[in-house]
């Protein structure tokens, strides 16, 4: 087996940092050593096949993006990144594992959705991948299917309090699924927005001629998120099911999570880079020659961007520091403006919902380190270690230690990146982050021992990535 020594860098984990060399044998990390260590009297460098110089750089566990939607049929079209293009873009950005959502839409069977997702992904991924299950309608068949989730390596599933007619579950359905989840030790993920009320608000706005993308965020008011988050918490409380609320954007929803956690309830929250950086005001002000006010469609996602004046973004950063929120995923759900987002010209309800940013998650979160919002350790924890623990992969993923998969990123704090659709690798004709200046740069990406990104060279190939059968969440056992 080929051996690699990553030398001279600062190894950063969720709990500390130290100058150390990392020895990789084949696909695994076999040792983390003090710099210049000798093994049986021999300088380590002499025996290894490849030496990777990480001097002046951070050596971190590969990023884990636990929320992506490749090839998702949604809003009358399909998310524009395939498993091939999406995992390649992830690799460029220092993410070495993704968890995508296998989809059951209302009225279809879970088993069929899962088989379809395996077929989409198998042989096409540059990095390792796992699945959550989207449950698009709780009926006796889907409840039975839950019995097989753990054996399939799918230990978490998502339900929707939003999107009536597509994915929506009512409170009774949610209650039944949570009862079963509590029994089986599965983690319930929730899209917490009051869909039926939002649909009424949205229809009223359109009737008033308020059809621009900005009104998407007005219809999906923070009250709709706070209320649904509270309802999800109470249903989870009643059933004893642990709860993970996805894509949290309203400060009031964070307050609900903090309240439940303070009482000892097993609830967790994830936010996304868009809710830390972008705002409803940005969306209102957006206009271009090509698209006019429809430019704002680039930032249509659910939950929506929130008002900066109301302080939601600052509150998200604070919650990441205080652990009221535990994770940052992207909810990568890319759609092009041309042919996709433009389906909603004249009616914001028809704009496919989603922002694509999985390539930039590590970079965007590293800016929190640069500004002092986060420590280096917290950066690693939010983007790799907690996702691994939350979703049953820790030990193999999320950590640099002997026995772990050699998923390693060498991050250059003195590097620089300018985000642009002209240079990104995601299959999107625009970037939600166009022109953003990033301090820091993903220099080298190693996936199970193979260097797949080396500076500006891409060395990965589709099929390198394997399906990860996940164990039960380590926060629950
Ligand atoms: O706008 C979003 N978030 N699109 C993806 C689907 C979802 O709700 O996660
Ligand atoms: Zn969602
Ligand atoms: Zn999503
Ligand atoms: Zn570089």
TrEMBL record:
Residues carrying N6-carboxylysine: 158
Gene3D superfamilies: Metal-dependent hydrolases (3.20.20.140), Urease, subunit C, domain 1 (2.30.40.10)
Domain Amidohydrolase-related: 58-198, 309-451
Post-translational modification: Carbamylation allows a single lysine to coordinate two divalent metal cations.
Keyword Metal-binding: yes
One CC-aspect GO term: cytosol
Statement: the UniProt record of this protein carries the keyword Metal-binding: yes
Cofactor requirement: Zn(2+)
EC numbers: 3.5.2.2
Keyword annotations: Hydrolase, Metal-binding
Matching InterPro entries: Amidohydro-rel, Hydantoinase/dihydroPyrase, Metal-dep_hydrolase_composite, Metal_Hydrolase, Metallo-dep_Hydrolases_sf
Domain of life: Bacteria
MF annotations from Gene Ontology: dihydropyrimidinase activity; metal ion binding
Family assignment from sequence similarity: Belongs to the metallo-dependent hydrolases superfamily. Hydantoinase/dihydropyrimidinase family.
Name of the protein described by the UniProt record: Dihydropyrimidinase
GN (gene name): hydA
């Amino acid at each position: 087996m080929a051996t690699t020594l990553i030398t001279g860098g600062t190894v950063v984990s969720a709990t500390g940092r130290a100058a150390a060399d990392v020895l990789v044998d084949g696909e695994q990390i076999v040792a983390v050593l003090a710099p210049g260590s000798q093994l049986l009297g021999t300088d380590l460098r002499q025996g290894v096949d490849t030496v990777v110089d990480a001097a002046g750089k951070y050596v971190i566990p590969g990023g884990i993006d636990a929320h992506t939607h490749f090839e998702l049929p949604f809003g009358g079209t399909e998310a524009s990144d395939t498993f091939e293009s999406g995992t390649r873009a992830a690799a460029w950005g220092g993410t070495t594992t993704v968890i995508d959502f296998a989809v059951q839409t209302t009225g279809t069977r879970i088993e069929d959705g899962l088989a379809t997702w395996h077929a989409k992904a198998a042989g096409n991924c540059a990095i390792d991948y796992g699945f959550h299950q989207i449950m698009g309608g709780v009926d006796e068949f889907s409840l039975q299917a839950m019995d097989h989730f753990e054996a399939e390596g799918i230990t978490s599933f998502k339900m929707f309090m939003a999107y009536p007619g597509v994915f929506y579950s009512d409170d009774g359905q949610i209650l039944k699924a949570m009862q079963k989840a509590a029994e089986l030790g599965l983690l319930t993920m929730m899209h917490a927005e009051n869909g039926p009320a939002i649909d009424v608000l949205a229809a009223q706005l359109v009737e008033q001629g308020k059809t621009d993308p900005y009104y998407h965020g007005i219809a999906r008011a923070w009250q709709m998120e706070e209320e649904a988050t509270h309802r999800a918490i109470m249903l989870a409380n009643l059933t004893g099911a642990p709860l993970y609320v996805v894509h949290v954007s309203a400060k009031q929803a964070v307050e609900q999570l903090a309240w439940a956690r303070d009482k000892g309830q097993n609830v967790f929250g994830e936010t996304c880079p868009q809710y830390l950086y972008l705002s409803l005001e940005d969306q209102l002000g957006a206009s271009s020659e090509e698209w006019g006010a429809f430019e704002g469609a680039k930032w249509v996602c659910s939950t929506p961007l929130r008002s900066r004046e109301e302080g939601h973004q600052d509150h998200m950063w604070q919650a990441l520091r205080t652990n009221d929120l535990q994770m940052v995923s992207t909810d990568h759900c890319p759609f092009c403006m041309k042919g996709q987002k433009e389906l909603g010209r004249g009616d914001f309800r028809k704009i496919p919902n989603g922002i694509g940013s999985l390539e930039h998650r590590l970079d965007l979160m590293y800016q929190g380190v640069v500004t002092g919002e986060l420590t280096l350790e917290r950066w690693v924890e939010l983007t790799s270690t907690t996702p691994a623990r939350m979703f049953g992969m820790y030990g193999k993923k999320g950590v640099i230690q002997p026995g772990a998969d050699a998923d390693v990123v060498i991050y250059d704090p003195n590097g620089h990146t300018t985000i642009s659709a002209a240079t990104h690798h995601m299959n999107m004709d625009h970037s939600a982050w166009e022109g953003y200046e990033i301090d820091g740069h993903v220099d080298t990406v190693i996936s199970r021992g193979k260097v797949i990104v080396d500076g500006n060279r891409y060395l990965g190939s589709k099929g390198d990535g394997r399906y990860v059968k996940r164990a039960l969440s380590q926060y629950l056992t």
